[in-house]
Design brief:
The chain is an alpha/beta fold and 243 residues long. It has helices at 2-10, 21-24, 43-46, 49-54, 57-63, 77-87, 102-106, 132-139, 170-181, 201-207, 233-241, and strands at 14-18, 91-96, 111-113, 116-123, 129-131, 157-161, 185-189, 211-215, 228-230. The chain has eleven helices and nine strands. The chain is elongated, with a radius of gyration of 18 Å.
Length: 243
């Protein structure tokens, strides 16, 4: 990875886009993988806003372990390597498609969650706010179909994850676009760049004259325009941590 390490060292504004691959290293299942959430019977309904408003128990039943079990996971080697790059002043920021909050757990301070986050939940009725830990407490000891509800109006709490039928979080995505457009180097980590509009962020770097490096087990649509494509995330983590 000599070319990538050299590019990191010489970068004036380094940006990173992360996807599910860096989290599977921590033991978190890929939603779209063989055992992922999208293989469940009601998968198309779990993250659908219309279905949530009809029957929020579909979401809470489907995500009891995969979302609310996230509290039990710790950052992996890639999360730690990115924190190191920030600590030495080489990383401008991270745009992530992940909703597992592990970048924040690792200590990264500039993280744009372009698909939202369960860190906060809001009541669908009155907008009352609850934290992730408060929702986890409500779920403790309850059966799989239990729905956390607002004490003020009785409506269901919904996580601030972007569901199908909802717009991406405008402020986070705008910041991620700016990060990408002003980067002279972008590193894509653990995503096959199939989910848009987040997958278009590296294109903004290319259009601005920046260089793109890709580290992902599978091919991506931008491989031909990238400086290099590496398959091994652990190799990247080791190389980045040594800078």
């Amino acid at each position: 990875m000599e070319r990538l390490v050299k590019a990191i060292k010489g970068s004036r504004s380094l940006a990173v886009l992360t996807g599910a691959g860096i989290s599977t290293l921590c033991g978190i299942p890929d939603f779209r993988g063989p055992q992922g959430l999208y293989k469940q019977p009601d998968a198309e309904r779990i993250f659908d806003i219309d279905w949530f408003d009809r029957d929020p128990s579909i979401y809470y039943r489907g995500c009891r372990s995969l979302v609310y079990g996230l509290k039990d996971f710790t950052p992996g080697p890639v999360h730690k390597a990115l924190k190191h790059l920030e600590d030495i002043g080489k990383l401008a920021g991270i745009a992530t498609q992940n909703i597992d909050m592990l970048h924040q757990k690792a200590g990264s301070s500039v993280v744009y969650e372009v698909h939202g986050s369960p860190l906060l939940h809001h009541c669908r009725g009155c907008g009352n706010e609850a934290t992730f830990s408060e929702i986890c407490t409500m779920l403790e000891g309850k059966d799989a179909s239990f729905v956390p509800r607002c004490p003020e109006c009785g409506s269901a709490y919904k996580p601030d994850i972007t569901f199908f039928g909802e717009a991406l979080p405008e402020e986070a995505f705008r910041a991620a676009q700016h990060l990408a457009a002003t980067a002279d180097v972008m590193i894509v980590l653990g995503t096959s760049l199939t989910v848009f509009p987040a997958a278009g962020l590296p294109v903004a770097t290319l259009h601005s004259g920046g260089k793109v490096f890709i580290v992902n087990a599978q091919p991506t649509s931008l491989d031909a325009q990238a400086i290099a494509h590496y398959p091994d995330l652990l190799e990247f983590a080791q190389a980045a941590s040594s800078i």
